[in-house]
Amino acid sequence: MAKTDVLSLAILGMLAEQPLHGYQIRKRLGTELGPFRALSYGSLYPCLKRMVGAGLIAADESDAGRVSGSKRSRIAYGLTEDGERRLAEELANSGASAWDDDTFDVRFSLFTKTDSATRLRILEGRRSRLSERLEEVNEGLARVRERHDAYTTELHRHGLERVEREVEWLDKLIENERSATRGDNPSTASAGNN
């Protein structure tokens, strides 16, 4: 999934809850989805325009009024039926793109709208991907230790610890999701609490 598609998915997920102005979308992306903290209006508005053109969202200026101190109207964006269908299709997708680095955080933020079986496949896929990465980082760490490069070794060690922490976190989420599916502990499955 391309970065633009990930942004579109995040926007569809937000607009599924309620119509929002561009400023509100940008603010929520920044506060709720860490990867988009640096999202510029130069990225957001072309994406919104493409989504309007594709019929996924509709732009409504009728309730907008004026932005204080500005001559511009605020445009409220809302999902169309096509947008709702596209969101449902994307949320049902548990393929490799759903657990990639660029996509996983957005997909995870939409887990409350995703069925349990799909959540579990995405979590397991992400864990599998990170297990492969652990092997790569361990091999890289062994190579830089042989060269006696202290700074690069430290960088690899830090990367290894970060991946190990995420694998542990995923293990807990997977177990909680499985427990909820079995009916053991449904109150904690979605949030990953113990």
Task: Please provide a written account of the structure.
- This protein is mainly alpha-helical.
- It folds into two domains: 93 residues, Orthogonal Bundle (Arc Repressor Mutant, subunit A); 68 residues.
- It is built from seven helices and three strands, in the order αβααββαααα.
- It has a three-stranded antiparallel β-sheet with strand order 1-3-2.
- The radius of gyration is 20 Å and the shape is globular.
- About 6% of the residues have low confidence.
Q: Give me the secondary-structure category.
A: mainly alpha
Mean pLDDT over the residues: 84
Report the end-to-end length measured between terminal Cα atoms. Answer: 32 Å
CATH class (first level) name of the largest domain: Mainly Alpha
| CATH-defined superfamily of the largest domain | Winged helix-like DNA-binding domain superfamily/Winged helix DNA-binding domain
Tell me the β content. 5-15%
Work out the helix count.
7
In total, how many beta strands?
Answer: 3
Q: What form results from the Cα inertia axes?
A: globular
H-E string: HEHHEEHHHH
Outline the low-pLDDT stretches: 64-70, 186-190
Radius of gyration, in Å, reads 20 Å
User: Widest sheet: strand order?
Assistant: 1-3-2
Architecture (CATH level 2) name of the largest domain: Orthogonal Bundle
Q: Provide the domain count.
A: 2
Sheet with the most strands? 3 strands, antiparallel
Q: Can you tell me the CATH topology of the largest domain?
A: Arc Repressor Mutant, subunit A
What is the oligomeric state here? single chain
Task: Please bin the fraction of helical residues.
Answer: 55-70%
